[in-house]
Amino acid sequence: MAYASATPRSDFSVNTSWLSAFVEGIKLRIERARVYHRTYDELSLMSERELADVNLSSLSIRDIAHEAAARVC
Predict the structure, then answer these.
(1) Interval 15-30: pLDDT, tens
(2) How open is the CA angle 23-25-29, to the nearest 5 degrees?
């Protein structure tokens, strides 16, 4: 003898919002790393005189690169 149920089956759905947030976070980190390295490399190529002309010091290159990377949204 077979039994039949009249209750509807619930649809199986997977919440993938965490995955897309994870991927977006990785993309953001990669872009920030690119901006940091690009800024750091460009400023590192400048001489002390060129840096002084734009009111910077070679000691502040890392800080400036970090600030530039932090501005990436």
Answers:
(1) 889 999 999 999 999 9
(2) 120
pTM for the full model?
A: 0.74
Asked if the structure places residue 49 within a domain, the reply is: yes
Inter-residue contact 49 to 12 (CB < 8 Å):
no
In a domain, 60, yes or no: yes
Q: What is the Cα–Cα distance from 5 to 34, expressed in whole angstroms?
A: 58
Domain that holds residue 62: 17-70
R_g (Cα) of the chain, nearest Å: 26
**DSSP readout, 1-31?**
------SPPPP-----HHHHHHHHHHHHHHH
